[in-house]
Amino acid sequence: MTVLGALGRWPSRAAALAVLAVLAAWLHAGLVAPYLTYLEGLNDRVTAQAAIFARMAALAATPEAPVPSPEPAALLLPDGSDAQALADLQDRLKRIASGNGLEVQGIQVLPRSETQVVARLGVRLRGTGDMAALNRFVHAVESATPALSVDNLRIQSRAQRGPSAAAAPPLDLQLDVVGFRMTGS
């Protein structure tokens, strides 16, 4: 082998090394770098989730203040006759409805049902309003004292045509509101 023969292989070896370096750079830029970026993102997510977990653990470890439970008598409709209790219930529902944007069209007294301990008194309310007003009304009724329960909710939409059709159509609704009182009162 001559010196010229040995020197002739160097340019082809240099070219092969250059191609190998370009392929390695493409491999790094196309696969390795995005994968490393993805792993860093996962590390950031794990760190954020660990911080959330630590906050949740701290919240779970703090003792909750005891919520005072109301007296059982405060959950019942007031003493007196059924007629007085139903009249108070009707007035209360009318005030709650008007305060929350619900229009009452009628209130019907439901039959009394009774067990050995409590009597169930209820009314059926018919009215109109939008969904937000209905949500506020039901929340106000069920969160007030004495405890009342909403039952048999029926909602029907009125279809509108014309320029006001873009606004939410009023809803026709009917629901039963039930309260309890001690029997024998």
Structure description:
There is one protein chain. The protein has 2 domains: 1-67; 72-182, 2-Layer Sandwich (Alpha-Beta Plaits), CATH 3.30.70.60. It contains 4 helices and 5 strands. The protein has helices spanning 3-61, 72-75, 82-99, 131-143, and strands at 103-109, 113-114, 118-129, 148-157, 171-182. The longest helix has 59 residues, at 3-61. The radius of gyration is 37 Å and the shape is elongated. The protein starts with a helix and ends with a strand. The model has no long low-confidence stretch (mean pLDDT 84).
Going by helix content, strand content and strand pairing, the class is alpha+beta
Helix content: 40-55%
For the termini, the CA-CA separation is: 123 Å
> What is the makeup of the main sheet?
5 strands, antiparallel
By CATH, the architecture of the largest domain is named 2-Layer Sandwich
Low-confidence stretches: none
Under CATH, the topology of the largest domain can be stated as: Alpha-Beta Plaits
CATH superfamily of the largest domain: Ribosomal protein S6/Translation elongation factor EF1B
Give the DSSP E fraction (strand runs of 2 or more residues): 15-25%
Oligomer category: single chain
Mean pLDDT equals 84
Kindly give the count of domains.
2
Radius of gyration: 37 Å
Order of helices and strands: HHHEEEHEE
DSSP summary, beta strand count: 5
State the CATH class of the largest domain.
Answer: Alpha Beta
* Global geometry: elongated
What's the helix count? 4
